[in-house]
């Protein structure tokens, strides 16, 4: 395998700022259909950059599924995106994404083959979540919960607290709380 598959990174707040509009994209979902954020007009968006193999993502996969189930009736769409170069880790392939989506019941799990979407959002690690309000303006960028290492047990379900605040019209503060996980596996530059 080329590169180091376990480089630990933290998310950063330098590309999108609070209030930034969600960068548009059109990506293939695990069901084969092309989907764009504009398909979810009037709905809040949770966009989570993740992958199948990351030991920092795996303990959060069920919580992501639970968030989707709990908040979908409240007008929130959960979108998972894998931007990893599949040549690094075969487990991140589109076929494995389809299997994982089926296992956890993810409605939207996109493959960012060009990696342009991860760059436009400033995603750096897996998981790297972003929350956008119904106007698709950024209200939060940060962690899913406070279990920062794979063996930690969460005491605070940060993303759910953020969604509850946003949906009740409260200010989300702080708007950035770093997440950490494996680095996104970028394709080698040509």
Summarize the topology.
Blueprint: E1 8-10, E2 27-29, E3 34-35, E4 44-49, H1 61-71, E5 76-82, H2 94-104, E6 108-111, H3 116-121, E7 125-126, E8 128-132, E9 138-142, H4 158-167, E10 176-177, E11 180-183
Parallel strand pairs: 4-5, 5-6, 9-10
Antiparallel strand pairs: 1-11, 2-3, 2-6, 4-8, 7-11, 8-9
What features would you describe in this structure?
The chain contains four helices and eleven strands. The protein has 190 residues and is of the alpha/beta class. It has a single domain, classed as Glutaredoxin (3-Layer(aba) Sandwich). Strand 5, helix 2 and strand 6 form a beta-alpha-beta unit. The two termini are 18 Å apart.
| Average residue-wise pLDDT | 93
Count of helical segments? 4
Helix- and strand-based class? alpha/beta
- Name given to the CATH architecture: 3-Layer(aba) Sandwich
What is the overall shape?
Answer: globular
Radius of gyration: 15 Å
The number of distinct structural domains comes to 1
N-to-C span: 18 Å
Order of helices and strands: EEEEHEHEHEEEHEE
User: Would you count the extended β strands for me?
Assistant: 11
Largest sheet: 8 strands, mixed
Proportion of residues in helical segments: 10-25%
> pLDDT under 50 segments (min length 5)?
1-5
CATH class: Alpha Beta
Biggest sheet, strands in spatial order?
Answer: 3-2-6-5-4-8-9-10
The CATH fourth-level homologous superfamily? Glutaredoxin
């Amino acid at each position: 395998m080329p590169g180091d598959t376990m480089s630990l990174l933290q998310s950063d707040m330098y590309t999108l700022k609070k209030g930034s509009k969600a960068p548009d994209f059109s990506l293939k979902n695990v069901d084969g259909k092309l989907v764009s954020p504009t398909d979810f007009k009037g709905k809040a968006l949770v966009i989570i950059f993740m992958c199948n193999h990351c030991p920092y993502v795996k303990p959060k996969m069920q919580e992501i599924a639970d968030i989707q189930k709990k908040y979908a009736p409240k007008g929130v769409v959960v979108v998972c995106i894998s931007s990893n170069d599949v040549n690094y880790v075969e487990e991140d392939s589109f076929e494995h994404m389809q299997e994982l989506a089926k296992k956890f019941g993810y409605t939207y799990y996109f493959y960012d083959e060009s990696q342009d979407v991860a760059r436009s959002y400033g995603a750096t690690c897996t998981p790297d979540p972003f929350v956008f309000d119904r106007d698709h303006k950024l209200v939060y960028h940060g962690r899913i919960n406070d279990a920062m290492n794979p063996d930690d047990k969460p005491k605070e379900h940060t993303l759910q607290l953020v969604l509850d605040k946003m949906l009740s019209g409260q200010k989300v503060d702080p708007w950035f709380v770093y997440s950490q996980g494996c680095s996104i596996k970028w394709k080698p530059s040509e």
